[in-house]
Amino acid sequence: MGSLPQVVEECFGLLKLYSDGSISRSPNISFDVPFINDNSILYKDLIFNENIDLRLRLYKPTSIVNSSTKLPIVFYFHGGGFCFGSRTFPNNHNICVRLASILQAAVIEPDYRLGPEHRLPAALEDACCALKWLQGQAIMHANVMDTWLGEVDFDRVFVLGYSSGGNLAHHLAVRFGPGSVELAPVRVRGYVLMSPFFGGCERTRSEEERPIDGIWTLEMYDRNLRVKLYSHGLT
């Protein structure tokens, strides 16, 4: 009999990679925050990539303060080191509820494929696909597009991302450029990167100066990079 597979990488006890290429994820990720659901914001889930069953969550205010003005659109890409996260997580859901309420905007939070099952740039491909989905909705006839999108302004789109989502926002800005001509009639007016997560082979100054006892240590940072780029035994 051969030896049992050994753990070669592990993240927070929630994700383990084994020497035979197999992966295990904990089904129990606990959160200390409740879902915000005060009926001021409506939301629903839609499929934006049927080929791989990727979904997004669309939010809109229950009542619009200025009914004569269409809602701007805010894309929100969640964080999680490219290995964790979902539109269904309460922390991500609550952020989108607050954005929709405070900004009086339609908020779109897409899921994207996670590592190590799906190596980068899979997440970026999915982020691009989400924007292309919105473009597809914009060019549809009014009686074909999703009814909620009849209330939005496709000329006022903003892309926000936190942590790994900030990384995606950066690459979307590079990919589509100023004015996002390729996405017409959708027009991205701005990109907001919140604590964007970047990594490379050489240490940056901020990495070298990071406190060794911080919440996110360099060892954890390096481990996360290895996990999301992991390929042994995977296709």
Lay out the secondary structure.
Elements: E1 7-11, E2 15-18, E3 23-25, E4 41-49, E5 54-61, E6 71-77, H1 90-103, E7 106-110, H2 122-139, E8 152-162, H3 164-176, E9 188-194, H4 205-208, H5 218-228
Parallel strand pairs: 6-7, 6-8, 8-9
Antiparallel strand pairs: 1-2, 2-3, 4-5, 5-7
Helix pairs in contact: 2-3
What is the level-2 CATH architecture name of the largest domain?
3-Layer(aba) Sandwich
Note the main sheet: 6 strands, mixed
The CATH class of the largest domain turns out to be Alpha Beta
Mean pLDDT: 87
What CATH calls the topology of the largest domain is Rossmann fold
Rg calculated over all Cα atoms: 19 Å
Q: Total domains, how many?
A: 2
Strand content: 25-35%
> What do we call the CATH homologous superfamily of the largest domain?
Alpha/Beta hydrolase fold, catalytic domain
Number of helices: 5
Structure overview:
26% of the residues lie in helices and 25% in strands. The longest helix is centred in the middle third of the chain and has 18 residues. It has five helices and nine strands. The mean pLDDT is 87. Helix 2 crosses helix 3. The chain has 235 residues and is of the alpha/beta class. It folds into two domains: 51 residues, no CATH class; 163 residues, Rossmann fold (3-Layer(aba) Sandwich). It is globular, with a radius of gyration of 19 Å. The strands form two sheets. The protein has a six-stranded mixed β-sheet. GO terms for molecular function: hydrolase activity. InterPro entries: AB_hydrolase_3, AB_hydrolase_fold, Carboxylest/Gibb_receptor, Lipase_GDXG_HIS_AS. This is Alpha/beta hydrolase fold-3 domain-containing protein.
